[in-house]
Amino acid sequence: MPKLVWKMQTLGLLHVGCDEPACDAFDEPNAVFTSMDTGNYAKGKLPPGPTPLPIIGNILQINIKDVTKSLSKLAEVYGPVFTVYFGMKPTVVLYGYEAVKEALIDQSEEFSGRGSLPIVDRINQGLGIVFSSGEKWKQTRRFSLMVLRNMGMGKKTIEDRIQEEALCLVESLKKTNASPCDPTFLLSCAPCNVICSIIFRNRFEYSDEEFLALIKYINENARLASTSWIEEKHNKQSEFTMDNLITTVWDVFTAGTETTSMTLRYGLLLLLKHPEVTAKVQEEIDRVIGRHRSPCMQDRSRMPYTDAVVHEIQRYIDLVPGSMPHATTQDVKFREYIIPKGTAIVTSLTSVLYDGKEFPNPEQFDPGHFLDESGNFKKRKRVCVGEGLARMELFLFLVSILQHFTLKSLVDPKDIDTTPALKGLGSIAPFYEVRFIPV
Predict the structure, then answer these.
(1) In the CATH hierarchy, which fold is given to the domain comprising 67-438?
(2) From CA 399, how far away is CA 300, in angstroms rounded?
(3) Which phi and psi (to 5°) does residue 370 adopt?
(4) pLDDT tens per residue, range 53-91
(5) Residue 181 is assigned to a ligand binding site
(6) How is residue 338 annotated by DSSP?
(7) For 117-158, how does the pLDDT look when each residue is reduced to its tens digit (9 = 90+)?
(8) Which three-class secondary structure state does DSSP give residue 40?
(9) pTM of the full structure
């Protein structure tokens, strides 16, 4: 077993999926804080919001099973910027494209802090890249990008590895013999192996016990027990401790595996639901690539419809409805409000991805959202450390599957329900089975 996997097992690092907590706030933006207030909040002029109850805040006004819907209803009453309370502390919610853009892009530095998720904080202890903040986040992110680039992310070598893994995925799907199957496991193995090939310089067979254990660790919860050991342990100012390194690598594994595999899994379900879209993608594959060579990233520029389908899948499934929680790094003047330093910020990505001004008929799955009048791909900005790798994987895996298989649903497409099985911190695709019929 690779030493890193062993160390992960020792640390008990996990993927954590949980519902967003509840929240609370005042009706008037100039409200004077009561005994619930702490620290800097007394000097703020927070946005309006529902009146909180003592201790529990707005917990009764937030449906934990569908936080997105609850925030949507509150936005109808209080507008695109409002305050709710997660327990006893205020959380400012930004709803809609304009408010989110104004904060995360126009005032990115002021809103660059990382908010708190108690369960995750207990496990990660502020380490890694996903849930860290401040100088630790800056140094870890910079270091992670440098290492990933040195290991080949965004270069031809990574594309070669994804192409190799795509062929392995296709061969495994062929072994299903066109029988009904749940694609979840195989769609997890493929992106996980890409990360393994970057970090371990080696891929695993899908039946390998160590690899199966790694997949299990990604998908299950366990307790974190960590100890520091390396030269850097004596430098109290350094962020490059062994614990931070392991947690960062685990973040890369989790994000690089689960987000891609879930997007692929959800994407196949949407293609089953919309066979007319699948037919257009396969026509483009036949015309540009054919059936006898592997797809490559150079093909993407000549396949605007397929590129639009990949982006529309990402938009429609709304994989992380609330994004990761942010926090203000200083006292911020935002519109007519004053938000104190350290205030938790929740941005509704659902409200951005389903903004009717940006995406006409947002409730519809329509690749045309990313095509102009001439049928050319229309790019929209997204920013993520692993964005380039994820885009490459999604395109090459999806095209490879559709190049070799016809997707056959076990039910009539019009009866397919694409409603998420769970929608909390992430959107989880419902269970389904599909036949992969070789072309």
Answers:
(1) Cytochrome p450 (1.10.630)
(2) 10
(3) -120, 25
(4) 988 899 888 887 778 888 999 999 999 999 999 788 899
(5) no
(6) E
(7) 554 454 455 555 555 556 666 666 666 666 666 665 555 578
(8) helix
(9) 0.77
CA distance 327 to 343: 5
CA dihedral 399, 400, 404, 410 (to 10 degrees): -70
The two three-digit tokens of residue 436, written as one number: 């992969």
Q: Which two tokens stand for residue 12?
A: 């008990």
Contact (CB, 8 A) for 272 and 402: no
Element (H, E) at 400: helix 387-404
Strands (E), 5-127: 81-86, 89-95, 113-114
The one-letter amino acid code at 240 reads F
**DSSP letter at 93?**
E
Residues found in the chain: 439
Residue 177, CA distances (Å) to 12, 118, 180, 184 in order: 37, 45, 9, 17
Q: Where are the domains of the chain?
A: 67-438
* 176, burial (CB in 10 Å: exposed 0-12, middle 13-18, buried 19+): middle
Residue 160's CB is within 10 A of a number of other CB atoms, namely: 14
Q: What is the DSSP string of 177-201?
A: TT--B-THHHHHHHHHHHHHHHHTS
Q: How many CB atoms lie within 10 A of CB 295?
A: 24
Sign of the CA dihedral running 6, 9, 14, 15: positive
Low-confidence ranges of the chain (pLDDT < 50): 1, 3-43, 119-120, 122-123, 221-230, 232-238, 385
| Block residue for tokens 């907590």 | 21
Q: Is the Cβ–Cβ distance between 152 and 158 less than 8 Å?
A: yes
Output the CA–CA distances (angstroms, integers) from residue 91 to 52, 118, 144, in the order listed. 12, 14, 30
Find tokens 């620290």 and name the residue. Answer: 39
φ/ψ of residue 422, rounded to 5: -140, 145
Q: Which long-range contacts (CB under 8 A, 24 or more apart) does 149-156 make?
A: 151/198, 151/199, 152/198, 153/198, 153/386, 153/388, 153/389, 154/388, 154/389
**Helices 209-219 and 3-11 sit at what angle, rounded to 10 degrees?**
40
Q: What amino acid occupies position 86? A: F
Q: Whole-angstrom Cα distance, residue 84 to residue 70?
A: 11
